[in-house]
Amino acid sequence: MEKIDIGRDRAERLVIGNGSPVGLLGSAREYKRVCTRSSLICGLGLMVAADPEGPEIHKRSLQTLRCFQSRLGNIPNGVGFRGQGEEPRAVIDTARAGSIDNSLWFIIGNYYTWQMDGDTGRLAEFWPSLQRAYTWLDYQDSNECGLLEVHEAMDWANLLANCYNSLGPNVLWYAVQKCMSAMAGALGKDNSFYEVRANDVAYKINTLLWVGPEFRRDLEWVELNRREWLYPIRATEVLFEEKPYFLPYMAFRGWEDRFDAFGNLAAVLFGMASEAQAERIFDYINRAGVDQPWPIKAIDPVVHPGEKDWREYYRLRNLNLPHHYQNGGAWPFLGGLYVAALVRAGRLGEAAHQLDRLAEMNRQSRHGGEWEFNDWFHGVSGRPSGFPGQNWSAAMYIFAHECVRRGEVPAFSRANGW
């Protein structure tokens, strides 16, 4: 058996072994609860697992999270237990700024599940909860510009200073429009509203966060409709002239220009980035070595003390020092997203090469042995860090392996309208 296939077998055993009656628990050692973000991202792998228990675990996660939806429609950070034998309860993480992507992934996860199993009955049952989650998200657009406004540290990078109209959450917001449109259509409902909004969100992300000839900004439209955006748009055009990737965020008369791997790769995976934009993004990754020593680092360049986006809380538990964790560490779950985005762009040979490297990354160990599926790796030394046995490291490897095996991305291909 080849290394990439051994990796898939080990990955499936790890993730399915963390299943429970309430869904997927966080990992083999830590996070003994259904952690919403990671559990739903893991659904991408669970729904294509060879073991039929995989899809069932993912569906149980969705059902559990639906049961604990807030009165305003938000999906909680997770669902866990007070102690042995007690009933599950919603887990609200009050140690951080909150989380905006729980509800985003809940909608995407339900779409993906329906695409993979075709169960419109289950979809109809979930539809009211999906509409409530969508409404909660809609209210996160505080200035009604069409994009989500996000506090810093509210997306997957929950110790990083992305904020306001940030890339990652808004690419997911674009994907949510596509998902809601497809699901509404499957249920015989009018989906034109979501289709219009998908185009609107894509247009506004490009207007704010892409600098270069691949997308021509209409400054007359901006002046008539979003004057708040004029200053940062003009400033970034003068300063940068062009960039080979989407900017990570645009705040009120402020911005950052580092490369955000999650946001840019998600833009490719969900078809929001044009072919020309995807070409520039992958070229930058290759030239800058963002996929070295492992695929792929969270950001490039890293944030150093004294820089505008440095926060003293980056020193917490030594986590976000330069080249650590979300500040330039390499993440296997992002590596899985990288492989899937390469497949989506038709770069099948490069995808297969990066899958092989991702298998070797997951094979590393801090404690002896092999196939530890660590959370993250140091961005320079390449050594494994964080906790071993992480579900999303394993599940996104399964998803990446399946994308390469099929030669297309399940559920998010052009054939599915993406």
Describe this protein's structure.
A hairpin with a 2-residue loop joins strand 7 (about 250) and strand 8. About 50% of the residues lie in helices and about 5% in strands. It has about 425 residues and is mainly alpha-helical. The model has no long low-confidence stretch (mean pLDDT about 95). The chain has a single domain, classed as Glycosyltransferase. It contains 14 helices and 12 strands. The longest helix is centred in the middle third of the chain and has 20 residues, at about 165-185. The protein has helices at about 5-15, 35-45, 55-65, 100-115, 120-140, 165-185, 190-210, 220-225, 230-240, 260-270, 275-290, 330-345, 350-365, 390-405, and strands at about 20, 25, 35, 80, 90, 165, 250, 255, 260, 300, 375, 385.
How are the secondary structure elements laid out?
Elements: H1 3-17, E1 19-20, E2 23-24, E3 34-35, H2 36-46, H3 53-67, E4 78-81, E5 88-91, H4 101-117, H5 120-138, E6 165-166, H6 167-186, H7 192-209, H8 219-225, H9 230-240, E7 249-251, E8 254-256, E9 259-260, H10 261-269, H11 275-288, E10 299-300, H12 332-344, H13 348-363, E11 376-377, E12 384-385, H14 391-406
Antiparallel strand pairs: 1-2, 3-4, 4-5, 6-7, 7-8, 9-10, 11-12
Helix pairs in contact: 1-13, 1-14, 2-3, 2-4, 2-14, 3-4, 4-5, 4-6, 5-6, 6-7, 6-10, 10-11, 10-12, 12-13, 12-14, 13-14
